[in-house]
Amino acid sequence: MISILIRRIVSLIVTLLVVSLLIFTVMNLLPGDPAAIMLGTSATPETLAALRTQMGLDEPLVVRYLAWLIGVLQGDLGQSYTYGVPVAGLIVERLAVTLPLALMAVVMSVAIAVPLGVAAARRHNGLFDYLAGAFSYISIAVPAFWVGLLLIIAFSTKLGWMPAGGFPGWDAGLGVGLAALLMPAIALALPQAGVLTRVARSAVLDVMGEDFVRTARAKGLSDKAAVWRHALPNALIPVVTMIGLQFTFLIAGAVLVENVFNLPGLGRLALQALSQRDIIVMQDVVLFFSALVIVMNFLVDLAYLVIDPRLRVAT
């Protein structure tokens, strides 16, 4: 078990280093001069040169990459060209919105999809199975931002029950903050619930034909109890994988929904940095997204080893 963990950690570190190099290279090959964008077309060559020196843009790419990497390892993500504040503070501030939003969406997705997928598997080829499949296909096909717009029209414009957008901050109270994130979380959760429903249904169906499930039924256990106590725990690997992927997707891929609801999250920060050509913010935010995906996959791998002891022997 220790050797498996060491190999996973080494692979994690190497992957992060390679990804950081790719991100830095791509970001610095983008067309356009950040100094010229910041100063505008009326800037003199001397002013541009001075700003480029101040921003370190006149240094070789290798030197700039190493300086950036060392800073990241020390917890110093640099300073935003546009906002003039440390990027780490910006990420933490925006993460206070995006992280609760993603967690709410994942909880909603799991709460909808797992019971629905298990029930559909128990009623395989029945009416409920077809209805669950229809929900899955429709929710996958409908874009999250469009669901968000429908929710705003229905519950904000027409009924006036929920705020149409914006985030008052957690200082306004936990209930107020959660209320502001409720509709965006629903918009994000529904498409993910459709995917997870299909995964849960297929995983439970694959396990329901196994001998240990039939033995549990033969011993007098009800069909419902056999599925929930024996089939579902042994079908968790693909379900856990999908939940992990969904969480990273919801954090990194909530750009459109955050813009629809005018939420000051990480996705919106990345979009603003791209439009303002703020290279250091783009690098750090994309690295954060990438590291989150890689670390989440690492944790999912560890979860496999906990869920299925056979993998510890096989690996």
Automatic annotation (TrEMBL):
State the Gene3D superfamilies in the record: MetI-like (1.10.3720.10)
As for membrane topology, the entry says:
Multi-pass membrane protein
Q: Which domain of life is it from?
A: Bacteria
Query: Per its record, what are the GO molecular function terms?
Result: dipeptide transmembrane transporter activity
User: GO cellular component annotations, sorted alphabetically?
Assistant: plasma membrane
What PROSITE patterns does UniProt report for this protein, alphabetically?
ABC_TM1
Q: What is this protein called?
A: Peptide/nickel transport system permease protein
Q: Which organism is it from?
A: Aliirhizobium cellulosilyticum
Q: What is the lineage of its organism?
A: Bacteria, Pseudomonadati, Pseudomonadota, Alphaproteobacteria, Hyphomicrobiales
